[in-house]
Amino acid sequence: MTKLIVDGREVDVPAEYTLLQACEAGGAEIPRFCFHERLSIAGNCRMCLIEVKGNPKPQASCAMAVRDLRPGPHGEPPVLNTKTPMVKKAREGVMEFLLINHPLDCPICDQGGECDLQDQAMAYGVDSSRFHENKRAVEDKYLGPLVKTSMNRCIHCTRCVRFITEVAGVADLGAIGRGENMEITTYLEHAMRSELQGNVVDLCPVGALTAKPWAMQYRPWEFTKTKSIDVMDGVGSAIRVDSRGREVMRILPRINDDVNEEWISDKTRHVVDGLRQQRLDKPYLRGADGKLRAVSWREAFAAIKVRMEGTRPERIGAIAGELATVEEMFALKLFMEQWGSSNIDVREDNSPLHSRFGRASYLFNATIAGIEAADAILLVGVNPRRDGAVLNARIRKRWRMGNLRIGLIGKRADLTYPYEHLGAGGQSLASLMAGEGEFASALRAAKKPLLILGRGALTSEGGLAQLALAAKAAKAFALVREGWNGFSVLSATASLVGALDIGFVPGEGAMSARAMAREGALDCLYLLGADAVDVAPGAFVIYQGTHGDRGAHRADVILPGAAYTEKSGTYVNTEGRVQMGDRAVFPPGDARDDWAILRGLSGALGKPLPFDSLSELRKLLYGQYPHLAGIDAIAPQDGTGAIEALSQLEVAGSDAPYAASDADYYLSNAIARASRVMAQCSELAHDQASIAAE
Amino acid sequence: MSVRRLAPEAVQPKEFTFTAENADWTKGQIAKYPPGRQASAVIPLLWKAQEQVGGWTPRRAIEEVAAMLGLPYIRVLEIATFYTMFNLAPVGRYHVQLCGTVPCHVCGALELKKICEERIGQQGEVTADGKFSWLEVECLGACCNAPMVQINYDYYEDLDPTNFGKLLDDLAAGRPVKTGSQTGRMCSEPLGGATTLADPSLYDGSRVGGWKTRFEETGQKEKEETGEQQPVKSSGEGGPAVPGSRNEVHIAQPASPKGLGVAPAGSPAGNAASPDEAVGTSKKPGNKSPRKR
Predict the structure, then answer these.
(1) Which of A115, A415, A589, B56 could be a cystine partner for A111, CB 3.0 to 4.6 Å?
(2) pTM for the whole thing?
């Protein structure tokens, strides 16, 4: 720690801090454009100038470290001034230069109201210009369907270039030309290829990069801002839902250093228009002619009553989809218990994860922030770039720190960091355990080895055997040790961990999701937003969900529910972190909260569920599963027990290569499939893949 | 300087690969850098590619260099557009870079510019015969001999409309041309010859380096008197540390003789030998002064 005097106040900061951070620690506010805590330091905007005593010129505070300061002649601590006239004049000069070429188009600029340049010009700008030449004009660039450019506004901070190169790891953006003629672009203006590219819009301190799908649709001060949790993958990124009236207008990341830092994936951000398209806003009933027609809630419930009464319990089943909250799955579980059925399942993808092996058997035990501590990572049948883009950025961050070996078993993919490909399937994992190869010894020597098991391994043939094998590997490499549990399962969907926590999986002798979908397996099947299973003809299907998607097409009765932005609900992310999202807007039309639909239906069927409000439901839930009451926390796990339980399984495995991860990343759930923007991204990704294949 | 873009697709070659000879050369360049730092060879490689293509850098060359160094295309494009020495569009056999910065401007670069426009055409255009193209550039650092142009790798200085026109004629006709000053002046000495240090006695050893003559004479005398060599005296009694003659300065000197820690004659360091070396010399009476070679 180093003592400094900032504006007359003494502060004690670590020597590796920049002067900018030191000044902030001292309570001073430093304007900046190019500096960003999570990116490398460029030092090119010059807005953060401060006065360092003994230094004849103003100093760019972001580009100098505290350890480079010298004490005074008698050993006094270095003195920094941020409010002297010299500093103000210097910053005003910088601002004047920045504004020379910046267009005066704030009234038509999407960044207006949340623009760093606008805000800082209020403090350091002058009211008139002394520049009488022509302003620079720059051609706008095409950067893909998500980022709109307005390059006249660019102030060359290069935050976008640094983000795409360092964090996203897809070096698409660059600055061509130089000086006044410097331009930010991709190589010959191809579309950006990163799944984190939307973040450059947040990073852009001016309106040069704005979100294309939302262009010219809002002013930021019109919004109601709601804190929520993303459901597009199992990571559970912290998001802020900005809504106006009854519409969600945009989704932005919130800072949560434990989960997503301050990034979100493009799917999380731009799925917004999918919340408006293809919505189910009325109950529907399939008539005798095979066509769905809109009915009232009462009629829909009556039709269900006719079909459910008299059905044997083992002929009834329920499948929960990937966007379901813990509360509604709990309500559905109680509902099924009332009917005497234990045919409940959340694992539409046929994964073998089950609550009976213990909670540590399906969690990302190392935690996402823990990735940064790992010193050897083995990826088993997982493409983290697809199944958790933000988590993949964390692995890349760790890789950039150096001294990390990464091995992959499964299908090769561009993960944005280099890895050693160790094989295609379970056989390779077995031989790795036998100690073959250099990577095995590296993994053995690692202090904090990390194994990430993904759905490529779990959903391929003999997934349970693969799970058991991974557990054996965990034992062989001693992944679970004092203060560290490196056995981590990456769940790709938002509902999975929560469902397993409440035991939303088939009980002893009951049917799994795949079995329930088979022809003649059930008489009556309840789908809670489950779109990934193909239900064979025969069964009477009740679909409760938000979008007219695959599940609704198969359904005999449709009950319109609320999407994740329209209800308060709990999600448990892949680490086991319990998080709660709030309602931003109301569901459309006659659609209702999902827990309320189940409560209403149970009442109509004459067996009312034991709660009348969400808080009563939560009380019941927390009574049975106390750890769910700990919002934003991860309950401690028994790692060793879970590994033991799994590794003692005796199942025959297959040596087939692991399945490839989800076919279409951008269209993985009902909301994304309804989104035009996601369709564009998907099309572009296909084009790029086919170009790359040539 | 203006916005720089790649040439239109119509003029871009379909393919680019280094010739076998150049490919060998690039290997040597890449090998100069430690493992993992091969990307540092990007500028030499681009430069070689430009040389091979005939003075400009096509898109395929950028991509080839990027592929060779494992860089994203945009990284190489950034470099090719940053440095104006990489021409992004085809240039003539003789690419004239005309300096238009202030010293050249006040000495008549405008007239040269007119000639370029008349003889070659607009900036960036190549003449129909493919021989010439021209570009106005910023200062090339030969202001003493303004106005000047750079044609391919050579400077042509002290230009005026007449000799510049003749230069272009000669180049077009394939006649040999003189590089450097076109008026025959030596380096960047004043117009009309040197005005200082003109006294011939400065160079005959009678004034500057007078010590040397005296030194030799004294040595000779002592030798004659004693019949054997005397310790060499320190050179401190001589004149200032100025090289003996003008010509000596320009002659490449061999490395200093073995056993003598004295720099070769003619170099200023030779006169500023450290005390140790002076002592060393005096202890070896059998050795002659290097100046007597």
Answers:
(1) A115
(2) 0.88
